Structures are given as structure tokens and as C-alpha cells.
Amino acid sequence: AQKITQTQPGMFVQEKEAVTLDCTYDTSDQSYGLFWYKQPSSGEMIFLIYQGSYDEQNATEGRYSLNFQKARKSANLVISASQLGDSAMYFCAMSFRDDKIIFGKGTRLHILP
Amino acid sequence: DAGVTQSPTHLIKTRGQQVTLRCSPKSGHDTVSWYQQALGQGPQFIFQYYEEEERQRGNFPDRFSGHQFPNYSSELNVNALLLGDSALYLCASSPWGLMNTEAFFGQGTRLTVV
To answer: Which pLDDT score is estimated for B1?
Structure first.
């Protein structure tokens, strides 16, 4: 079965600290993509970062990096130097060729001033 | 360049009614997918349209149907609305065949069924 698990329903982090959001996945497919999305209270799903299953290097996009551990089926998001504007819901997701995107249940991140 | 646009942004309907939600994809995107996001949950895949045909479908009843037009825009129709259909409905567009690596989401339509 294809599944995404996010075990942290909520997190509180002090501004300027780094934060790691956990994500594990389950699939028997060899070719897949892993995503992280940010969803502010407005509802729009904002793409943050992508990692392909065959990519050997961890993906990075500005302050976001994806810690990809394929053998452990783990794809944690690391946000460096957190900002107040980072407060939002964060979803880990997985996609397959020409197929749907499967989302986890999300982690609500609160950045404290 | 406009991204993915959805209309309306909010909608209130009564049980048993029918509703149509609309989505215009990002320029250059030919594939549209619809998702339902219940409060406090992650989005759930409803279906995907490419070349005006439904290509993939999630675990949703036939009350949920869709359409894609030649200009790639899409509609989601829900018949015989239930209270449980209250949710945020998200539309995503992408170029076909890129494993959603360039998928963009709209701001969603918040449907409330009373």
C-alpha cells in the first residue's frame, strides 16, 4: 500500500532556530517523487521542495532541504533559520508517474517570536 | 502569468443540492487534478483529467464527476450533497508526464453543506 506518515501533529519552535519535520513513506514502486507543501490559513497549497527517488543528492531550495534516506523510507524537511512567516501546516506527499499525489495528515508548525 | 485559479472561493449549499466548482490551470499545463481536504486532514485525490478524459480516480462515489474542456479548464460536479461533503476542494494543474514535479495548486473552494 502507498502511504505517507507524519507523526508530529504540531510543533512549536523559537524564531531563528532550525526545525525538522518528519515524514516516512511506504511504497513498493521504484520510481516515485517526494514533495513538501506548505499550506497557510488561506488554504493554498504552496510547493516547497521535490526529491526524486533516483536522486542521490538531497534536494535544497533556499532555507528548505529534504533529508532523503531511501533505505529507511524517510524524507524529512529541514527549515533553517525559521521565520514567523513559516507558521503554517506542512504536508509531505508522494507521487508516481502520471498518478495522483498522496498526502500525509500534516504537521502544524508554530514559530514563536 | 496567472497560476491556477478556482471559483468560487466560498460556497454554501443545502443537503441534496448539486454544486459545480471550476478550475483554470496554469498556462502551459494540460492536466488537472481535484482533491478534497476535510478539516484537519490532508488532501484526498478525487480524479485527474487529461485530454478531456478522466485518467485516474480515487475512492470517491459516482456523485463526484468532472469534465475538462478543450482549453484545459475543468469542472468538478457533486450531486446529492451530503453534510460530509463539506471541505476545501483543491485543484492542481501540471504538465502531463512529469510526475507532478511542476504541479501547482489553486487557492481552493471552501464548500459548506448545511
So the answer is: 60
Positive or negative, the Cα torsion across B107, B64, B33, B99? positive
Instruction: Give the number of C-alpha atoms closer than 13 A to the C-alpha of residue B104, restricted to the C-beta side.
Output: 16
Measure the CA angle with vertex A62, ends A4 and A58; round to 5°: 50
Distance from C-alpha of B41 to C-alpha of B86, rounded to nearest angstrom: 13
Contacts of B112 in chain A (CB under 8 A): none
CA geometry: angle B55, B90, A11, nearest 5 deg: 125
Please report residues of B whose CB lies closer than 8 A to that of A100.
33, 45, 48, 56, 58
**Residue length of chain B:** 114
Cβ-nearest to A103 among B43, B88, B99: B43
pLDDT in tens, A6-46: 999 999 999 999 999 999 999 998 989 999 999 999 888 99
Asked if B107 and B17 touch (Cβ cutoff 8 Å), the reply is no
- Degrees to nearest 5, angle at CA B10 with B4 and B15: 125
Residue A98 to residue B90, Cβ atoms within 8 A:
no
For chain B, the helix, strand and coil percentages under 3-state DSSP, each to the nearest 5: 5, 50, 45
For residue B76 the three cell numbers come to: 468538478
Hunting for cell 501547482 — which residue is that? B104
For residue range B15-35, what is the model confidence (pLDDT) as tens digits? 999 999 999 999 989 999 999
Size of interface A-B (CB pairs under 8 A): 69
**Does the N-terminal peptide bond of residue B8 adopt cis geometry, omega within 30 degrees of 0?**
yes
